[in-house]
Write a structure and sequence with these properties.
alpha+beta; Rossmann fold; five-stranded antiparallel beta sheet; 6 helices; disordered C terminus
């Protein structure tokens, strides 16, 4: 998508000549490209634009096998659900030079058991702070530290980091013919504390040490799983990421916990 063009690409033009940096814009939506064209025209930036392309970025191939220094892809929702961020990254990473950069550099998904009521309170605190930060009529607020610095909290049980999206995603993970990326299985604790729900945590590393953690952005709020199975104490669950249809993590119970097997035999 061309959404990142204005905040990221436009900021570079005062510092580089059009012979030093040029942009190729790809978007599947004609309205988005029309909006970008208007911005480019008003600001007189036509010399910086190498090409404007209406295409599906998951299918697009650059002419002549051209390779790029930097690729920026922001077609995502929290938990990497719904939008094709993974599929787009898989494709555009093939068009980078060997020393090229991908932005965001890394997106990590983790699973965590958490208390919905406590998380709702954290979400409200975060919305208030973000609202103050973007209230240009008030004083500038420079401290926008996330509500939680990491996933540790007394009412949370961190399960595991389960998926990392980087430019080497194709080499890091296999993918089935049906578009599933198989991931290592997880096991829930036994006993399983009551009142906790399983959520997907999203951490976005844009580049280097610049990262967005819990509640630092609307993209890093905890997200429920798509069609989650019932949670069983000590249960082992198969895990995969679906790239086709509705993208997202999928969890399915892979075996009955040993404690339950003993109970069944005793009956």
């Amino acid at each position: 998508g061309t959404g990142p063009f204005a905040p990221l690409a436009l900021l570079q033009t005062p510092f580089f000549g059009s012979d030093e940096v040029r942009f190729t814009l790809i978007d599947i939506h004609p309205a988005a490209l029309a909006c970008q064209a208007q911005i480019i025209s008003v600001l007189g930036l036509e010399p910086y634009i190498e090409a404007t392309i209406q295409a599906d970025a998951t299918q697009w191939q650059p002419p002549g096998g051209k390779k790029y220094h930097i690729a920026v892809a922001e077609v995502m929702e929290r938990g990497l659900i719904t939008e094709p961020q993974v599929a787009v990254t898989q494709m555009i990473a093939n068009h980078l030079r060997s020393d090229g950069f991908l932005v965001p550099e890394r997106i990590d998904l983790s699973l965590c058991l958490m208390c919905p009521e406590a998380e709702q309170e954290r979400a409200e605190q975060s919305r208030d702070r973000l609202g103050e930060y973007f209230d240009l009529s008030g004083d500038s607020i420079t401290d926008i530290t996330p509500v939680l610095g990491d996933s540790a909290a007394p009412d949370r049980i961190f399960i595991d980091r389960v998926f990392s999206l980087t430019k080497s995603v194709a080499a890091d993970y296999g993918i089935t013919e049906t578009g599933t990326i198989p991931l290592p299985a997880i096991q829930l604790p036994d006993p399983l504390p009551p009142g906790l729900a399983l959520r997907v945590l999203t951490e976005i590393t844009t580049f280097g040490n610049f990262a967005l953690g819990d509640y630092a952005s609307g993209l890093t709020f905890p997200e429920p799983l798509v069609d989650p199975p019932p949670l069983t104490p000590g249960g082992s669950y198969a895990l995969g990421y679906e790239t086709l249809g509705v993208p997202g993590l999928r969890l399915s119970q892979s075996e009955v916990p040993r404690s339950n097997q003993r109970d069944e035999r005793s009956n």
